[in-house]
Amino acid sequence: MENLKAVIIGAGMGGLATGIALRQAGYEVEIYDRVSELRPAGAAISLWSNGVKVLNRLGLGKEIASIGGQMDRMAYYSSTGEKLTDFSLLPLIEQVGQRPYPVARTELQGMLLNAFGADQVQLNSKCVAIEQDADSATAIFADGRKATGDLVIGADGTHSLIRQYVLGYAAERRYVGYVNWNGLVPASEDLAPKNSWVLYVGDHKRASLMPVSGDRFYFFLDVPLPKGTPSQPENYSEELAGFFKGWAAPVQTLIQRLDPFKTNRVEIHDVEELPTWTKGRVALLGDAGHSTAPDLGQGGCQAMEDAWVLANSLVTNTISVEDSLKRYEAIRKDRAADVVIKARKRSDVTHGKDPEKTQQWYSSLKHEDGTDIMSAISKTILAGPLH
């Protein structure tokens, strides 16, 4: 369809990637975000090959390679430091045709903003309502301004207001059962090899180090805790030292080195599969449509896939905007739901939902040469739209 105008609510990864894809398709695009300053949530993200392929397709291959970390290997250790498995990720990279890139969120957002035009994103624009008629859709902002286009895309994240408009009710977020502390520390060999993703597992907890650019590690620490457990940054170091007491030296070193005031603490939630992602000329995208636990590292990648498929659907189908959005949903809905369910199952095993299953997983890691782990990752990657 020619000369469409898209109004995108949300300037996160999904919103920006969609803006770039739609503009490259020749459409007019306006992006709005409620914040006064764009600061990404979370320290870093593992962008697996399916997400990277979308960026390659958008002409950002060189840029993502320059800000991505060099992750050549993956290793699991027990909480006490016994090596369970350590293997090269090269067979996975060869199988899927693209390297994964762990990347600092600030740099990824900077790259996408740069590609779209940072001055073209309209901040301080809190969307409070949506209206539509037969010919257009309109976002209404808190200060009374309106933005009208041929379609409105709700890329407004896990607490999406537009999701409520599309569904007609507020979808409850579901607590997955654990708290995640994450941040960045300087890379050093006493924490982990600089080209390896290293995970320590035990007691239903997890400590992870992953290389990102700029000679840094992205770290996260997971602990199953009741929802609403209170905590303040000034207590993080002490609390983590308690939760990981007796764990291997690199985990202790990490806890001593992290800056608690630059560390994020997140209660991990997801959202049950939604009955629909679209309502006429309005569509959901990214976390607004399929909020997932980060246990497969696929949240950002799924938003990238959405962006690509949405742009493609609008370009290739000419019946109507509504028809194109329905086709986008039909291609994406089962795929995204599958990732949400798999991530939840993965989290349940990692975090001791059924302690016996977790114990079996720990035991199985001792006999793992990487084949099963890489096969599971590869299946997830190759189920995406760009093979």
Task: Give an overview in words.
By secondary structure, the protein is an alpha/beta fold. The protein has a domain at 5-69 and 104-173 and 272-353: FAD/NAD(P)-binding domain (3-Layer(bba) Sandwich), CATH 3.50.50.60. The protein is 37% helix and 26% strand. The protein has twelve helices and 18 strands. It has helices spanning 13-24, 49-57, 61-67, 90-96, 105-116, 161-167, 233-243, 249-257, 299-316, 321-350, 355-365, 371-382; strands spanning 5-9, 28-32, 44-47, 73-78, 83-88, 101-104, 121-122, 127-132, 137-141, 146-149, 151-154, 173-186, 196-202, 205-212, 216-224, 264-271, 278-279, 282-284. A seven-stranded mixed beta sheet has the order 5-4-13-14-15-12-16. Helix 1 runs parallel beside helix 5 (105-116), helix 4 (90-96) packs parallel to helix 12 and helix 9 (299-316) packs antiparallel against helix 10. It is globular. The mean pLDDT is 95.
Oligomeric state as shown: single chain
Largest sheet, spatial ordering of strands: 5-4-13-14-15-12-16
- The gross shape turns out to be globular
Distance between the termini: 25 Å
What would you call the structural class?
alpha/beta
The tally of strands reads: 18
